[in-house]
Amino acid sequence: MKILLVDDHIVVREGVRRLLTALSAADICEAADGEEAIKVFRSERPDVVLLDLNLTGVGGFEVLRQLLGEDEKARVIVFSMQAEPVYVVRALGLGARGYVSKGASAEELITAIKRVAEGGRYIEHELADQLAFAHDTQNYPLQKLTAREMDILRLLGEGNSLSEIAQAMGIAYKTVANACSGIKVKLGVARTADLIRVSIGLK
After folding, report:
1. What does the pLDDT average to over 164-169?
2. Are 20 and 3 spatial neighbours (Cβ–Cβ below 8 Å)?
């Protein structure tokens, strides 16, 4: 089984690589950012992709969209620190086959990989329980956001300015500012300060 691990922290990649030795005949390839992930995906055609959302440059949601643009049958598991239902719903809505938080056990991660590699789907048990009660929460409108908008909102919540977000994502400041205006309309908030409060509430 060939697995592509996409994470911008080398310590995380090394740790996951050690965990995956429990999978027989696992062939692990790695990527540290979104652009590299697309290149490796094209050349290696992995059976499963483990994708972090918090990437430098192109954000994880956008990478997910691009991977599925390359191959609509790509088997992607989001493996992220983000453990809020809205992220799970958004990832699955974009086409991810699974979602596991970095707080899950090694056994659950391996189970997810096996299940998805076999053509199934897998959501971490604790997150699945949260999803069952999340449909009517105030976070529901966030499901209207695009992959790029979700990445921008996440970066806002981490305390980045619009200029810093533009630099991190490799896009123009005006693009970020226009995206924020669109996000405000979708979420029904008037000020950037309100948008920042929403984004912090996701953490």
Report:
1. 91
2. yes
